[in-house]
Amino acid sequence: MIRNAAAILVPVLALVSLSSCAKKEAAITPPTVENYSYAKPAEVAVSHMDIDLDVDFDNHVLTGSASFLLDNKAKSNVIHFDTWALNIRDVVLEDDQGNEKKARFVVGDSLELIGRPLSVVIEPNTRRVTVHYRTTAAARGVQWLTPEQTAGKQHPYMYTQSEAIHARSWVPCQDTPAIRFTYTANVHVPGGLMALMSAENPRAVAADGNYRFEMKQPVPSYLLALAVGNIQYRATGPRTGVYSEPEMVDKAKWELADLEKMMEAAEKLGGPYRWGQYDVLVLPPSFPLGGMENPRLTFATPIIVAGDRSLVSLIAHEMAHSWSGNLVTNATWNDFWLNEGFTTYVERRIDEVLYGREYADMQTMLGIRDLNEEWDEIGKDSQDCALYTEYNGRNPDEVPTMAAYEKANLFLTMMEDSLGRGNWDKFLRQYFDSHAFQTMTTKHFIRYLKDNVFAEDSTRYDALKIDEWIYKPGIPSNAPRVASKRFDQVDMQIAAFKQGVSAKGLNTKGWVTIEWQRFLDNLPRPLPAARLQDLDTAYDFSHANAAIQRSWLPSVIAAKWEPGYPALENYLMTIGRRFFVRPIYMDLAKTPEGLEWARGVYKKARPGYHPMTQTGIDLVLYPEKKAE
Ligand SMILES: [Zn+2]
């Protein structure tokens, strides 16, 4: 849709010439949009970027420059960048002799979601293009937190979230996963605060607030990341560690004590870790995602700090992206399952090494539950229930993705079961090695699979229903069966509870968070008030960690159980992870009085949410208004 629409929607651009108004210049043809980007990678692509940015907490803007080295393959006379709500002040060209001059450029009309193209006229000897710019308060890839929104309550905080198409709201860039570049950055922040990027990072606060970063491996724009706050570092091993606010950093270190072991398990599957250091930044609660695999520095929700180490497989997931996604990258967002499916599969293999097969299977079973919940919502026949999904110009943040994660994990597990673990692991290793720092399409993956696994034996290929897995909605009949004795135990306690056994009378000895999730997810709803009170008195779910509350609160809502509402409100006011708050708002929106109550809370909570979370909840609570 975008590809066709773009040509119609972008009008011929008025020419802006900063260098010369006197002589008549050739018009710059407005670029079309492909894969959510104005960039034309086959013609001219950025190979390296140097950023210089001032972080201004008073005005919530980043001001500075982004300077690009070019690979002008097609001897193009114009380069197109993506921008979203950026103020472009000036563009300068540098030739191969180091001479600089002002460039002729056009900032085109804005398209919904895509933003404006920045088209810069270049010359055959142009080596570098430097864009001077500032962000605006509208930057959807940046969140600015007040001190009250942090754990320490003393200092402001900011962080970026670039995937899928938000990097362009804080750096002008060729914002497509098809282009990779190395980068350096100079970042200037108020004294006392620490700046971190998806790059080589400091361990201590710089007294003058000046930080220098370098990312030596080429990365796509969606892996650009910056965070600034009152942050400290703790090592967890020779090449792993955690960053967080002082109030949180030691708890985070305890929770993530297994990072080094996780890395060893991941390397056994994917080959040597190619990014040097691996650290985790545990962010304040408003972070909209579970984790974001920014290279060298995973950004993570504080929800993982559950106190029982039971939610750390989320970090195994982000670490696994160091191979699937960051090293071998989906060429377009339609191929997102190649990023997320392989990552979910490797995550479960890491879980298996560290915590046993049963733990990995329990994670898979919780994942399948999430998948079913999503598929019930969108309809099981939806094309979004296939692995390969046509995004068709939809907001990438709103496209259902459980197939890309959990169905793809089942698919890859089926492949492992069919080929045998030894053969499959050999294939995986070879797949990562031979496509390192490259992009991958679904078509290319299938070709590679056929060439390297099936040697053109199409009968065997067909017998595994691979095309059905990839292109058809639903779960094919050869899906692996997943079961867990520990979950069987939990299910017995659910049955006992249903038969009237009191909460205290249940055998819940030794349960960790994921077992409580299983229990609470499968309780009948609505329960009578007395039974909810009995459960809450026995286990204090109203004050449990966020993951347990996410499974508990639907019962509170279904029964309209008043004593649970203060905890419900507190949850919605303090947690910003989209996957955690959106289903709760959806449950509330099922009844008119629930919707009214939810809108009241949301009015207060919304300013504290990340724009990605806001967009998702706006659609739930105000479906009649189209998201902007
Ligand atoms: Zn992921």
Q: Which spans of ≥5 residues are poorly predicted at pLDDT below 50?
A: 1-22
Task: Estimate the strand proportion.
Answer: 15-25%
CATH topology grouping of the largest domain: Immunoglobulin-like
**Structural domain count:** 4
What structural class should be given to the helix and strand makeup?
alpha+beta
Give the strand line-up of the largest sheet.
5-4-8-2-1-11-13
Q: Let me know the number of strands.
A: 21
Helix content: 25-40%
- The average pLDDT value, as a whole number, equals 94
Global morphology: globular
Determine the N-to-C terminus distance: 18 Å
Report the total helices.
19
Radius of gyration (CA) equals 25 Å
**Biggest sheet architecture:** 7 strands, mixed
Bound molecules: zinc ion
- The CATH superfamily of the largest domain turns out to be tricorn interacting facor f3 domain
CATH class category of the largest domain: Mainly Beta
Tell me the CATH architecture of the largest domain. Answer: Sandwich
